[in-house]
TrEMBL record:
Entry's Gene Ontology cellular component terms: late endosome membrane; lysosomal membrane; plasma membrane
Gene: LOC102830632
Location in or out of the cell: Late endosome membrane; Lysosome membrane
Membrane topology: Multi-pass membrane protein
GO molecular function, one term: ferrous iron transmembrane transporter activity
Xref: Pfam families: Nramp
Superkingdom of the source species: Eukaryota
Protein's name according to its UniProt entry: Natural resistance-associated macrophage protein 2-like
Transmembrane segments: 31-50, 71-87, 107-126, 138-156, 168-191, 222-246, 289-310, 322-340, 352-372, 384-403
Major place of residence: membrane
Keywords of this entry: Ion transport, Iron, Iron transport, Lysosome, Membrane, Transmembrane, Transmembrane helix, Transport
Family according to the record: Belongs to the NRAMP family.
Length: 438
């Protein structure tokens, strides 16, 4: 136990929490099935990361360093570092917002950012006393998130029938472009590329006799079981957040929120919501204040504690994964490539089903990325940004094509090697049988 719970923090960072609350506010319970499906896909990707680290004894960054030429290695490294920076920005700001809420506005956001940066490095020193202690600390933070967001769930009392329907009936009747973008946002928030690098490195902390195939097979099995448990807990916490905002704030307008806050004894939200009948726009900060207005100050402060735990833990894991990526590292295509190669994975290489499913997933993820870019640029409506986005998209797709091409070549060579070995084995067996007969 341990690596899977550190990995699951990426599914609970402030970016995910904000995606959850926005999903609940704009689509009600209708997108819970997207969260469930995305969590399952995430589990399949983490399974590949586990197998690579357990079987090869190398994490993904190390395998990329060995297998790719220099220029693609550098491009990979830069792309993953940018992903970590973008993710860390959300996490640090999320922690700063939580500190601001807990201090009743006395600690400004810039000071909260500095506090978060400082205590992140302090907590990471736990690693010097053993990874197990760091894993236990992360388990404590996940427990805090489960208790705080669970409290909000119990307080708001969402409709259980609507929760189950939204989770297991894949439909979105009456959904418009806003809900579609939110569904895409759920996918993007949960599938973090740096998390694959992190998980493939964390499993190396356990001693495994890789010369013993039964021991390797057993390690793979128990790491996947642990990942299932960790992601199930993360999924439940995300369901708590979506359901709370779906029950309390779906269909609400700014005017309705303003009226409730004016009538409450909670004075801190007067200037945040315009007094109009437009659909409510919410984020982590506004969400906390709304909970305070509707359900009392306790709901606000408990929400802030949960956000602080989410921000602190995810900032630390982001920084931690950055250490492995710096040894060198896009994650999906490399992990699919290397876990399918027999020279790397031996008898534990992916079968044809995993290869086909992975290829489909690559296409889906790239399509989602391009859709998000187009939607964002259209929203800004500036021609210069259209040109910049087009150039970046061409470069992005070109590099994806390069990685995919190398993946196909590597898989083809692996297939030919396997075919040749089978043919040679048949010849040797035939000769042995003939010799034995003579």
């Amino acid at each position: 136990m341990g690596p899977g719970f550190l990995m699951s923090i990426a599914y609970l960072d402030p970016g995910n929490i904000e995606s959850d609350l926005q999903s609940g506010a704009v689509a009600g319970f209708k997108l819970l099935w997207v969260l469930l499906l995305t969590t399952i896909v995430g589990l399949l990707l983490q399974r590949l990361a586990v197998r690579l680290g357990v079987v090869s004894g190398l994490h993904l960054a190390e395998v990329c360093h060995k297998q790719y030429p220099k220029i693609p290695r550098i491009i990979l490294w830069l792309m993953v570092e940018l992903a970590i920076i973008g993710s860390d920005m959300q996490e640090v700001i999320g922690s700063a917002i939580a500190i601001n809420l807990l201090s009743v506005g006395r600690v400004p956001l810039w000071a909260g950012v500095l506090i978060t940066i400082a205590d992140t490095f302090v907590f990471l020193f736990l690693d010097k006393y053993g990874l197990r202690k760091l894993e236990a600390f992360f388990g404590f933070l996940i427990t805090i998130m489960a208790l705080t967001f669970g409290y909000e769930y119990v307080t708001v009392k969402p409709s259980q029938s609507q929760v189950l329907t939204g989770m297991f009936v894949p439909s979105c009747s009456g959904c418009g472009i806003l809900q579609v973008v939110q569904a895409v946002g759920i996918v993007g928030a949960n599938l973090s590329p740096h998390n694959i690098y992190l998980h493939s490195a964390l499993v190396k902390s356990r001693q495994i006799n890789r010369a013993n195939k039964q021991e390797v097979r057993e390690a793979n099995k128990y790491f996947v079981i642990e990942s299932c448990l960790a992601l199930f807990i993360a999924f439940i916490i995300n369901v708590f957040v979506i359901s709370v905002f779906a029950e309390a704030f779906f269909g609400e307008t700014n005017n309705q929120v303003v009226q409730v806050c004016k009538n409450s004894s909670f004075p801190r939200s007067d200037d945040l919501f315009p007094d109009d009948n437009l659909t409510l726009a919410v984020d982590i900060y506004k969400g906390g204040l709304m909970l305070g207005c509707y359900f009392g100050p306790a709901a606000l402060y408990i929400w802030a504690v949960g956000i602080l735990a989410a921000g602190q833990s995810s900032t630390m894991t982001g920084t931690y994964s950055g250490q492995f990526v710096m040894e060198l590292p896009f994650a999906l295509i490399p992990i699919l490539t290397f876990t399918s190669l027999r020279p790397v994975m031996s008898d534990f290489a992916n079968g044809i089903g995993w290869r086909v499913a992975g290829g489909i997933l690559v296409v889906v993820i790239c399509s989602i990325n391009m859709y998000l870019v187009v939607s964002y640029v259209q929203g800004l409506g500036q021609m210069v940004l259209y040109v910049v986005a087009a150039l970046i998209s061409v470069a992005y797709l070109s590099f994806v094509f390069y990685l995919s091409w190398r993946c196909l070549i590597a898989l083809g060579m692996s297939f030919l090697e396997c075919g040749c070995l089978v043919s040679v084995s048949k010849v040797l067996l035939k000769e042995e049988a003939t010799s034995s007969h003579q």
